[in-house]
Design brief:
binds ligand MTE, 34% strand, 5-stranded mixed sheet, mainly beta, Sulfite Oxidase, Chain A, domain 2, 3 helices, 5-stranded antiparallel sheet, binds molybdenum atom, OxRdtase_Mopterin-bd_sf
Length: 196
């Protein structure tokens, strides 16, 4: 599903910035990435632990609910599935919530997603990107440095948590930051599935 414009969207060449709250200032000493919820054992990873995981490069279209879409952006990052090899999930885990910083709180932002649609190369925790106009660049602080999630193009971009801090594994679906405010649990741009 590449370079396909969902209904109600227009294409932008630039990459706009959108979020609530402060831009997180990276501190390698205190930065942690937690795997928790329905897991046999909780895991806490340092930045070096995360960066030692296998890398994936993918071109992923982005669709923001505010109606811009950006095509042909190539990302390098760690596929979500790599984290599954670091812990054992309890039975019947179907959903996750990806957490990130909001005004200094590492778990202040979150977005829910169905796990079975995040096992491919198009579900990445990214640290650098390039497009037709530029060579590889680190993800900037405003876009989520040092690490942010980019969801598959079949989800609106608010499911792409910036300044990530962990993944909660869940049996039942649960609202995240925007979902609590009335946005869609499923968020499919091709169905204009914006609100609940
Ligand atoms: N931690 C955090 N992640 C966030 C947000 C936020 O407020 N805080 N906003 C989301 C929203 S609404 C969008 S549209 C995308 C925008 O990503 P961009 O600024 O890199 O384009 O980030 C998402 N990730
Ligand atoms: Mo958004």
């Amino acid at each position: 599903m590449k370079n396909q414009l969902p209904p109600g969207q227009f294409e932008t060449e630039k990459w706009p910035v959108l979020h609530q709250g402060d831009v997180y200032a990276f501190n390698k000493e205190t930065w942690k990435f937690r795997l928790f919820g329905e897991v046999k054992e909780e895991v806490s990873l340092s930045f070096d632990d995360v960066m030692a995981l296998p890398k994936t490069v993918s071109t992923i279209d982005m669709h923001c609910v505010t109606t811009w879409s950006k095509f042909a952006t190539t990302f390098e990052g760690i596929a979500l599935r790599e984290f599954l090899s670091l812990t054992s999930l309890n039975e019947d885990v179907k959903f996750i919530k990806i957490y990130g910083y909001y005004n200094g709180d590492p778990f202040g932002y979150s977005a829910n997603l169905p796990l079975d649609r995040l096992l491919g190369d198009d579900a990445l925790f990214v640290y650098r990107w390039k497009d037709n106009d530029r060579d590889w660049e680190d993800i900037s602080p405003k876009h989520g440095f040092p690490l942010r999630f980019i969801p598959p193009a079949s989800f609106y971009l608010w499911k792409g948590t910036k300044w990530v801090s962990g993944i909660k594994f869940m049996k039942e679906d649960e609202e995240g930051f925007w979902e609590e405010l009335g946005y869609s649990m499923t968020a499919d741009p091709f169905k204009e599935d914006r609100y609940r």
